[in-house]
Design a protein that fits this description.
Layout: H1 2-29, H2 44-60, E1 62-65, E2 70-73, E3 87-94, E4 97-107, E5 123-133, E6 139-153, H3 159-165, E7 172-173, E8 184-185, E9 188-194, E10 214-224
Antiparallel strand pairs: 1-2, 3-4, 4-9, 5-6, 5-10, 7-8, 9-10
Helix pairs in contact: 1-2
Length: 307
């Protein structure tokens, strides 16, 4: 009886917190100066706390039904998602806000050949079905690609996908050449549970309201290992001179084109791929004696310095 009362009290406190934070976020976003314009000063940190508790409520009140490959409301005898040993929790910081997201790892994936895990910049071949959590009970379908797989790049999708897919591997392509649809087996698959801040945030998008948590059923079939967006000989994941793990914000020559999309990273008039030396790899050529630790393709003063 004590344990039951304690649990009821905890659930009450959590729901009360969600209510208070929701009122705070609503009031903050409905200021007169925000009417009809995008709210740039929206309190994403407060919304992250709301999302964190509402996701926990959802995971406590639902389970994964393996018989039909679907998330369902919790029934007697079933294991709640929050207690499912396959559920993995991760924390990330995005735009200076801390987020917590979850994914149910059904299968990590057994790729043939083994290309490893994708990076946050790699292209991936996936199938998926997306739903948003209207509340802690209802799920609304909004998008799916469950018949034919689609290629996407993990730097060009919602951040929740970027952070989640790097935990899965692809499978084995068993497509019969010239006969039949693209077919893979043993690919990674699972379910993603994402806070709105790693999805469509407070703005929403077509068919999806702002500030809603997201759930995706996903299958990862294949990846392009060391994806090179600009085909300059440097994998996009390595076009990260500042070393923060996000090549999207690196622009050596400050031409408003990030290095991973820039054919001439240092703006010296020589294409990056032509600064790769004999082996064609621009990352291992250091020919400027005045700056021996800077590769030529990031050095605007070489060879133009005359050294």
């Amino acid at each position: 009886m004590v344990n039951c009362a304690t649990k009821i009290l905890q659930m009450f406190n959590r729901k009360l917190l969600i209510l208070c934070l929701s009122i705070l976020a609503l009031g903050y976003s409905c200021r007169p100066d925000s009417i009809g314009v995008t709210v740039d000063n929206f309190d994403h940190a407060a919304q992250a706390l709301i999302d964190r508790d509402s996701l926990i409520d959802f995971l406590e009140s639902h389970y994964y039904d393996d018989a039909i490959d679907s998330v369902k409301p919790l029934v007697t005898g079933a294991t709640a998602l929050i207690n499912d040993v396959r559920l993995i929790e991760q924390e990330v910081t995005e735009l200076e806000v801390d987020y917590k997201f979850y994914f149910l790892m059904k299968n990590e994936g057994t790729p043939v050949p083994d290309k490893g895990f994708p990076t946050v910049m790699d292209s991936v071949l996936v199938k998926y079905k997306g739903q948003y959590l209207f509340n802690t009970e209802d799920l609304i379908d909004f998008d799916e690609r469950t018949v034919s797989p689609v290629w996407l790049t993990l730097n060009g999708v919602i951040r929740g996908w970027t952070y989640s897919f790097v935990n899965f591997k692809g499978g084995e392509n068993i497509t019969v050449p010239g006969n039949g649809p693209i077919t893979y087996q043993n690919g990674g698959n699972g379910v993603l549970f994402l806070p709105s801040g790693l999805g469509y945030r407070n703005r929403g998008t077509l068919g999806i309201p702002g500030n809603v948590n997201l759930m995706f059923y996903i299958e990862l079939y294949d990846i392009v290992q060391d994806t090179d967006h600009d085909n300059d000989g440097v994998p996009s994941i390595l076009e990260d001179p500042d070393g923060d793990g996000d090549p999207r914000n690196d622009d050596t020559d400050e031409d408003n084109i990030p290095n991973y999309l820039d054919f001439d990273d240092d703006g010296d008039g020589i294409l990056t791929r032509d600064e790769g030396g004999v082996d064609g790899d621009p990352t291992n050529d250091f020919n400027d004696p005045n700056n021996p630790t800077l590769p030529d393709y990031l050095n605007p003063n070489y060879p133009n310095s005359g050294n």
